[in-house]
Amino acid sequence: MLLGAIADDFTGATDLCSMLVRGGMRTVQLIGVPRPGDPAPDADAVVVALKSRTAPVRQAIDESLAALTWLRAAGCRQFFFKYCSTFDSTDAGNIGPVADALTAALDCGFALACPAFPANARSVYQGYLFVGGNLLNESGMEHHPLTPMTDANLVRVLSRQTDGTVGLVPYATVEQGAIAIRRAMTALKEQGRRYAIVDAVSDAHLVAIGEAAEHHALITGGSGVAMGLPENFRRAGLLTERGDAASLPAVSGHAAVIAGSCSRATLAQLGAARDVLPVLQLDPVAQPDTETMVATARDWIADKLGDTPVVIAASALPDQVAALQRMLGRDGAGALIEQTLARIAEDLVARGVRRLVVAGGETAGAVVSRLGVRSLLIGGEIDPGVPWTYAEGGATPLLLALKSGNFGAYDFFTKAFDVPQGGRAFARNSA
Ligand code: ADP
């Protein structure tokens, strides 16, 4: 195994996996910290998906270190700490404290930090993080309920989270390429800096940064900065080509979509799906309990499963979400829907569904844990950042696509079943 990564959230882990697969690395995502004796998968890269972004600092550190220990035992040569491209964190952490713990455990004394992902409109210039044309703290992220980002200067932000010091490799140096970047990082390390925020406003910058960090034990950043890593391994003769890194075992069975995201993209995708697929819209305000909704779905599914994918959604407009939250509280409403959709997913799999799309990050987490999925082999992307995956650990292997709410084009739910999965295409169906 070449690269071992630790991701601070679930859909972010998948995003990194997709980047590595695109670079030709066979990649497996593991759900949660693997157990000490768990065998290493046959892959070039492993990404351990944690839910540590907003966990208590101590827990985030402990889980990250446990993941590192397992990845080291599995023989990884380089390590990657993946966080969000908007550097989601607070002054208490968790990016700085986890990076501190990983640099100490690896005894490497230095790591670069680069959340830039220009293809997704995240760029870093003079240490300032931009989202599109706006500074991070004017991008809407300043209002995030858990990790409000009120300072766009990442040198300052990371400095507040670490007991080490933070330097900058500025645009002018990055523009000169890998050798200049490497020299600048070496100089910062010799000055006693523990981290370097590295500017990047283009894919070429990300590739050069990756090349410059070829011999670093630890790299930290968004999935963008992983872009150059597969080529490092290839150049060193370590990455053996074994056909298509994105190919998945073939799985046959029914197809379904479960949607718990209420984000705009998912609502639009559901609207588009209604024209061509059977859609069950759950009404949690009218049926605010899991057993009733599970029974409703069970009745509805009874004569629906065949060649055409079916869609079951709890997703709702803000006024309906607010109505349920008034009844059950914010956490109560979320938990009710997540549990319900996870139970429905279990029913669908029991009835022979083997290709399942889940929309919503929290929803996906609930479904995956209910199904007992422990690992995901990453396949080809349906839309950027959302690959098909081959899920193992549950009662039966199945193909899963876990879509972060806002990802994907309007026709995602039909497109998902058009793309080759495990080497075979699944024809578009019309209801
Ligand atoms: P996203 O990726 O868009 O953030 P998530 O699944 O992470 O999607 O979050 C959506 C949240 O909204 C979940 O907690 C889900 O249970 C909740 N939810 C879904 N449908 C409804 C609804 N009709 N009323 C209230 N909450 C809902």
Could you characterize the architecture of this molecule?
- Helix 11 packs across helix 12 and helix 12 packs across helix 13.
- The strands form two sheets. A 15-stranded mixed beta sheet has the order 9-10-5-11-4-1-3-2-16-17-18-15-12-14-13, sandwiched between helices. Strands 6-7-8 form a three-stranded antiparallel beta sheet, with no helix packed on it.
- The protein is globular.
- It starts with a strand and ends in a 16-residue tail after the last helix.
- The longest helix is centred in the last third of the chain and has 21 residues.
- The protein folds into two domains: 233 residues, Rossmann fold, CATH 3.40.50.10840; 165 residues, Four-carbon acid sugar kinase, nucleotide binding domain (Molybdenum Cofactor Biosythetic Enzyme, Chain A, 3-Layer(aba) Sandwich).
- A hairpin with a 2-residue loop joins strand 16 and strand 17.
- The protein is 36% helix and 20% strand.
- The C terminus is likely disordered.
- It is an alpha/beta fold.
- Bound molecules: adenosine-5'-diphosphate (ADP).
